[in-house]
Each structure stands twice: as structure tokens, then as C-alpha cells.
Amino acid sequence: MPEGKVFLDTNIIVYAHDLSAGRKHEVALKAVLDLWNSGQGILSTQVLQEFFISVTRKIPKPIEIRGAQKIVEDLLEWEVIINDGDLILASIDLHVRYHCSFWDSMIIQAAIKGRASLLLSEDFSDGQTIRGVKIQNPFR
């Protein structure tokens, strides 16, 4: 893991808990475990909400609600960025400037607010840096 804080997009945490995801499961699980050990992981309320819905409804073998709730409870030990009004307004600015979806700009802005040096996601341009946050696709 790199120096500094690392923000995880929803897909990384979902793959870490989706046993049917093959290589993506292995890579994501290693990233999550490394961040547990280093204490450098950051999430947002949006990531936790999307994670809960994804693992209880969208993966091939959904996790039971109470099991998913326990995972969310554990992840709340990490630094969690709250999506407040200022973050929403700043995300709109990112949305306009970088032409990404509003929801993606919320993720990026949360990483910026949390002073992450790295954002792990498969959904953004690998290698791009936005306002000091480098985006990396761990599956490449």
C-alpha cells in the first residue's frame, strides 16, 4: 500500500465480500486487509450505503442482512466521510469540471475531503489525478 490514506470505492469492498468474484475477490480482499492492518482506509457514508444494498441484493450469493450490518458496523471503525451539504456542492463543481457522473463526483470529493492520496476503484480513469487524489484500478 502507498503512503497516506486510501479511499475505497464501493466496488472494492463489495468484491472483497463477494466470494464468486474470482480474482477480483482476491485482489480486493488483500487491499481491504492491508488497509485494516495499516489503519489508512477511508470510506464515505455513500460507500457504506451502496455496499449494504449491493451485498444484500446484487451479488450472486447475497449476504444476509444481519451479516452485512455487522460488516458495515466493523467498517465504521475506519475514517468515514459524511456527505454533507458542502460536499454535495463541491461534488457538483467536480461533476461540471470533469464531466463525470454526480455519484462518481461524490466519491471523488469524499476522497479529497478525507485527504486521501489514493482512490481505489475500477470505475474511474486509472492513473488520473484529481485535486491531489490519484485514482488506481487495482485489477489492472
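^ that was protein a. below is b, sequence first then the C-alpha cells
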Amino acid sequence: MPFVYRSLISCLIALALIIVIGTVYGVFFRTPAAGPTGQTAVPAEAGQGLTFTGIGRLRISTSDPQPGLIILFVSFTYFPEDRAFSEELALRVRDFREITTDYIGSFSAAELQNRSEEEIKAELLRRFNAVLRLGKIETLFFSDFMIVV
């Protein structure tokens, strides 16, 4: 066999070995990801999982004739060991943002000031869990909840 063919076969064998070794390493020695793909995971209190902050800070207009602005940052705890639920959370970020924007944006600034934060959290939690299929969110947290008129 000419030299060129032997060189090409050796390169092909070397590439196949690299792919096989990389796959074995990735499957057996890789550390699991801290949170859903593309999402920030912040450690929660010990034994309570991680804090999902993928929804981010939302700026929502109120339903007033001259709209006010609501600044809201929603988070909740989840357990990354439940990979299917973690992936569902990552896929539902857009839904969570839309649900929050639609719900909060349906109120005027005065109506929001008259509602308790717990009442708002309970309704958002109910709506979030209504779209989830593989698990449930236990508690919502608001690290920012400001009404700017």
C-alpha cells in the first residue's frame, strides 16, 4: 500500500480512538452540571437544592392610563438531580416570563399596592405549576419587587 493510504488510515484510526476515549471520559468521569443549560444556579440553603434564577429581572408596565413600571426578580428552589424537571424548567423560562408579565401587567399600580406579596406569589406559583408536567415548584421568592409610578 502506498504511503499516502497508510497515513490516511493511521489518521482515521487516531481520530476514531480520540472520539471513543473522549466519549468514555465524558460519560464516566464528567461532573454533572449545576443547573439547567444556560441558566444561572445559585446555591440555596443546605439540603434545599439550588435556586433557579433563569427568569431574570423583569420590567413590566402596569395597566394604568399612564403606565407605571414594576421591577420584579422571581426565583425558586429546585433539585438538579431531577434532570428531567431541570430540563423542563430551562425550556419553560419563556413561559414563566410571559405568565408573570401577563399577570402583573393586568393590574394598575394602585391595585398592586393593595395586594399582598404573598397573594401575588401564590397566584404566580399556581400559574407556573399549571404549565409544568414533570414536577412542581414549592415556593417562589421575590428578591426585587418595586412599583415605580
